[in-house]
From TrEMBL:
Entry-linked Pfam families: FAD_binding_3 (PF01494)
GO molecular function, one term: monooxygenase activity
Cofactors that this protein relies on: FAD
Domain FAD-binding: 308-369
InterPro entries named in the record: FAD-bd, FAD/NAD-bd_sf
Source organism: Hypocrea atroviridis (strain ATCC 20476 / IMI 206040)
Keywords of this entry: FAD, Flavoprotein, Monooxygenase, Oxidoreductase
Protein name per Swiss-Prot or TrEMBL: FAD-binding domain-containing protein
Amino acid sequence: MSATKPILISGGGLSSLLLAQSLRQSRIPFKIFERDTSFSFRAQGYRLRLSTEGLEAIESVLDPPTWQKFWDKCGKTGGAGFTAYDAITGEQTEHAAPETLASRGGKIVGIARGDMRKVFSEGCEEYIEWNKRVVGYELSDDGVFAVFADGSKSVEGSMLVGGEGIYSKIAKQVSGGRLKVYDTGARGIHGQAPTAAFKGLGEGVFSLRDKTRPDGAVFIITNVRPDQMDDPGVEFGWTMGGQPGIIKAPNDDYTIVGKQAADIAKSLVKDWHPRFKPLFDEMVEAEAAFWKITCSTPSGVPEWPNEPRVTLIGDAVHSMTPAGGIGANTAVQDSALLGRLLREAGGYKPGVTAAYEREMRIYASKAVHTSYTTAVSSFGVAIDENTTPTV
């Protein structure tokens, strides 16, 4: 690493770590500030399906050995492709061939967030400062400081990248409040179960939907991978979603994990077909966790006056619903693009963030719109930019 001022990165999520990998290989100094005390502090969330664009972005950043390690961690699913079932009757309602979701080699490629984070963090650990919650920034004559929740400041950086997700204080400050994240009211629960619980489904990507409830639909989606089906040490995950008002946490506390979340999931599927019940009866209760379904402005990433030394990546700039599975794939495109521009400039240079934001707004605005319109039909959500609450 050179002795120049580091690039400061707020947040230690997937897009931040992939950007750090890019900077490390370009020998551009950086520091990551993460609010948690370690990667194991919180549940890592549900499994991600990687698109062609997402895989290409990741491969463009990682060196060949790290890419191979990442690729080996990915599950590759062919089998039945995508199949939807009526959760109550067990009848098939929809089917699509594997290639409809395939991203490489005719396979549907997915990876657990935790595994992805481990690979992306390799070689970057010494540059992470834990228990540092960034709440703003201060510009200097020729640099920028991150400001932490305890009032202290970081070292002076050449540039600050806000990658700390939907609650980003950097996003609010740099955009002058133009960036908003709306709470759609829809909620979800993520669960895990041993592979044996999924044998009744077989290989493929499955959606199970219950439309009999008077208050709206409940559904899950899961990815069953053949290479790990007979490994008793492996758990597969499922992600449950419900229309606004159906999935509720006690006292509206969505930080609750474990048995309370598991019990709510089980109560919602008590009338489901016996073929699907093992996913819930055998679930690892400690792994259950709620999540809110949020979305940025559906019309796209707004414009704001460019601040040359501060920009944003990932959910901090374009939060998306899980519909279509394109949020993380868009976030890694941010990392690849910004990392490439910084490498070509040899580090921070005036104009880098403006060039990045121009290009990012095009593909990210399209992705947010796709994510939102899909969620309107899947989750029954609706965002009114004047009345829908923000997070």
